[in-house]
Amino acid sequence: MIEAIGLGFGSLDLHGDLAPDGSAGLLDWLGLGRDIPILIWLTSLLACFTLTGVALQNIAVAMIGGPLAWWLACGIALLLGALLNTLAANGLMRIMPSFETTVISTDDLLGRRGVILEGTARRGAPARAKVVDQYGQAHFIMVEPHNDRDEIISGQSALIVRREGPIFFVLPDENTQLKPI
Q1: Which of 16, 90, 144, 166 makes the best surface tag, with the fewest CB within 10 Å?
Q2: Residues 13 and 69 in one domain
Q3: Signal peptide: which range, if any (predicted)?
Q4: Which domain holds residue 13?
């Protein structure tokens, strides 16, 4: 049900801010406004509710000789469980891996330097090259020399100048016009 609601209302901004200056909202206080998936947060809340409810009823049996009324026990367990879940969610957030993805177009590799990994790049015979993008991610592409007479051997660096379909065309770094001033 939560997943279905998330699909329908995923774009809504549902922050229940308690402080007018925006310092801490209700969802942040409950531990939900952070980088923790809602299903993990909900599981943690239910576990905290269950543990506090069982502990509360055991204490009531030991102290007054019988369990509390269900509505009273549920209300107290929900309040204490929510407080305990705040601590649990903050602890879980520290150990949860954070995911950050980046997507670039293949045309964003143009103008970057790559290193030939396997083979010798000749016109009509591409070689495999490794290029690192602006986010530090390695891309493995097939390259051919831009000029018909060039050959780029394994381990040599080259500048990517254009792309036609899946093949990138490169100029070897030995070209003096490509050296920085």
Answers
A1: 166
A2: yes
A3: none
A4: 2-95
